[in-house]
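Fold these two proteins, one after the other.
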Amino acid sequence: MLGTSRRSVLVSIGVGVGATLMSRGASATFVRGMTLEELVHRSQHAVVGTPLSAQCRYLTIGGRPMLVTETQVRVESPLGLPPPSEGVLTMRTLGGQLNGVGELVHGQAELRVGQLCAAFFERAPDGAGWLTGMAQGHYPLERAGAAHVLRPSPQLPTIRDWDRSAVKRLVGTRLSEAEQLVARASGR
């Protein structure tokens, strides 16, 4: 005989599977697109950096514990804004996996160890950085001949106001051009 709690779990799984099989359309995460000027003005720094290592931990946010991934990023160069004083930054993103428990937060950037990227970030009171606009503040760099080109963050959600977004303006640009765009947007 099944216990009440086990029966409830099995019923919930059955309902979930049934709903999934019966669903007709896919859903997507939508975010308001930040303009390049908004992205730049909300960021204390923009850097070209290389993620070195990442680890997850719990951090209390809004009164509740949440999984946070902290990635150590070596600063290779500034990107059109004043450089940070540190050579290695701690960048935080919501979600991650720790001790068999995982938490997925849609729209977060996915910093990959060893993958050069451009990153815009805001400082937390403890000095760590949060990517500005989540995945909208992260651009993996891809080699294109002698230059690097900005690409969209792998977990970038669907952006409303796409035509005015920073992502539209930056993706596909060479790193040198992106630096000029950021400097102009900052008013420097």
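Now the second one:
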Amino acid sequence: TFNPGWNDDATAKSNFEDVRSLEARLEEAGVEILKRAEPGKGPAHFLIADPDGNQILIDQHETAPE
């Protein structure tokens, strides 16, 4: 699991890239999105897989900065 918006201590960061933007960039690079993030600006998540088929959850708990 990767949590944009949190540091290594699970403390909120003041600046980070929203999961929807990360999802779009990965898709443009050819990565298959297994489960898409809900639209909006608040918390959301999406799911991808690595080349071995291991699922990776990108899970945003904070509202992205403007």
